[in-house]
Specification:
Order of helices and strands: H
Helix content: over 70%
Distance between the termini: 53 Å
Largest sheet: none
Shape: rod-shaped
Structural class: mainly alpha
Strand content: under 5%
Number of strands: 0
Number of helices: 1
Radius of gyration: 16 Å
C-alpha cells in the first residue's frame, strides 16, 4: 500500500516537473515574440 502511494507521488512530481519545463519554454517563446 505504501509503495503504491510512493509511486503515485513520484508520478505526480514527474508530471509537475514536465509541466514546469513546458511552461518555461512557452514563456521564453512568448517573450521572444513580444520583444521583437
Amino acid at each position: 500500500m505504501l509503495n503504491l502511494v510512493k509511486g503515485i507521488l513520484k508520478k505526480i512530481k514527474y508530471v509537475k516537473s514536465k509541466i514546469f519545463i513546458v511552461n518555461y519554454f512557452i514563456d521564453n517563446l512568448l517573450n521572444k515574440i513580444f520583444s521583437q
